């Protein structure tokens, strides 16, 4: 068995840890770290410097304020590092503001994007009285059990490319998608008691780690 194969087997058999970073420039970092810490065989780290990505297998870009986070990503030289992370087929999950930054396009804005995900998004898509709300739904690909979906000044995905799988939509409104190595959710699983979504993410990290 080659070294890569052996490593993959060890990770799959739960005998080797994968390392997951949470981009720690702004936003809901602690909540993601706490959820990841409840999952076995995962080493967890807040990521404050681009070089920390070198030994991570997965990265979460949390919710927060996408405008602020975009500036910090640029200021701390994360743009190229995150793009390289994606090119190495390492796994990235963007929640809410994280989803906005990963999108190829934002409706009505011309901002520089990481643009790693072939989707178009609309920021603050739910209007003022519905700024924040909790929905409940089953997301079959993730789990058979009902999950709480927490939306906070959430974006919506208004267009998806051909390489994108829709994980969750309601009445034509798309709120979660994935492609080969990226997951994006408009809602915040880190603000619920359940770690199911984080487990789904970690499984994807494991399946692409070698
Ligand atoms: N909870 C969130 O991450 C909100 C995202 C925020 N409305 C933005 O546009 O950046």
TrEMBL record:
It catalyses: aldehydo-D-ribose 5-phosphate + D-glyceraldehyde 3-phosphate + L-glutamine = pyridoxal 5'-phosphate + L-glutamate + phosphate + 3 H2O + H(+); L-glutamine + H2O = L-glutamate + NH4(+). Its EC number is 4.3.3.6, 3.5.1.2. InterPro entries: Class_I_gatase-like (IPR029062), PdxT/SNO (IPR002161), PdxT/SNO_CS (IPR021196). CDD domains: GATase1_PB. L-glutamine binds at residues 64-66, 123, 152-153. One of its GO terms (molecular function) is glutaminase activity. Belongs to the glutaminase PdxT/SNO family. Catalyzes the hydrolysis of glutamine to glutamate and ammonia as part of the biosynthesis of pyridoxal 5'-phosphate. The resulting ammonia molecule is channeled to the active site of PdxS. This is Pyridoxal 5'-phosphate synthase subunit PdxT. It comes from Halanaerobium congolense. The gene is pdxT.
